[in-house]
Amino acid sequence: MSLESAVERILIPEADIEARVRELGAEITKDYNGKEPILVGMLRGCVVFYSELLKNIKTKCTLDFMCLSSYCGMESTGEVRILLDVRGTIKDRHVILIEDIVDTGLTLDYVLKNLRNRGAASVEICTLLDKPSNRKVTVPVKYRGFEIPNEFVIGYGLDYNELYRNLPYIGVYKQK
Ligand SMILES: O=P(O)(O)OC[C@H]1O[C@H](OP(=O)(O)OP(=O)(O)O)[C@H](O)[C@@H]1O
Ligand code: HPA
């Protein structure tokens, strides 16, 4: 079965994503000039967005990553686990959490509290996609690429059971 056969329809074409990511990069560059932020990518879904955004941030910054897991198929288990933690210290740093999607909000709610407890100077969220209609907890999203409807999406880093992350656009997953 081809990659594309899992796609019901294309929701956001590659060119639109690239244009929006350039705008987000410009905003972050302006807001964080002189603050030397640490960009904490939430593995693995963030990888494509993270690297594209990074090229568009034109101020000094450092990179780090966390890996959390809570999904099984299309459902959040509600239990968030840290599988990999940041390598560097967070204390007194300006943190930008880079996510592919905020859906129920459970993952970022957990991470926000965790990093604030470690004494970060500030923690903000930058997400490519925001699905507000499925929220279970409120999370403050500062930088948002696109608001999307309550549908399960794949591509541009997002998976269904670890597959389809390498599609170059955001598509709605075709349920069998
Ligand atoms: O707002 P939520 O409902 O918590 O969903 C958002 C999270 O779910 C996905 O991660 P997942 O646990 O599937 O891991 P992944 O990044 O490896 O895909 C996604 O990358 C976000 O981190
Ligand atoms: O719509 C989604 N697609 C892929 N991964 C996800 N994690 C939360 N929501 C989604």
Automatic annotation (TrEMBL):
> Nucleotide-binding: is it a keyword of this entry?
yes
Enzyme Commission code(s) on record:
2.4.2.8
Give the InterPro entries listed for this entry.
HGPRT, Hxn_phspho_trans, PRTase-like, PRTase_dom
A cellular component annotation (GO) from this entry:
cytosol
Q: Does the keyword Cell membrane apply?
A: no
Which PANTHER family does this entry report, sorted A to Z? Answer: HYPOXANTHINE PHOSPHORIBOSYLTRANSFERASE, HYPOXANTHINE-GUANINE PHOSPHORIBOSYLTRANSFERASE
Span of domain Phosphoribosyltransferase: 17-160
The record's family statement is: Belongs to the purine/pyrimidine phosphoribosyltransferase family.
Root EC class: transferase
Q: Which Pfam families match?
A: Pribosyltran (PF00156)
Q: Give the subcellular location.
A: Cytoplasm
GO MF = guanine phosphoribosyltransferase activity; hypoxanthine phosphoribosyltransferase activity; magnesium ion binding; nucleotide binding
Q: Which residues form the signal peptide?
A: none
State the protein's name. Answer: Hypoxanthine phosphoribosyltransferase
Name its pathway. Answer: Purine metabolism; IMP biosynthesis via salvage pathway; IMP from hypoxanthine: step 1/1
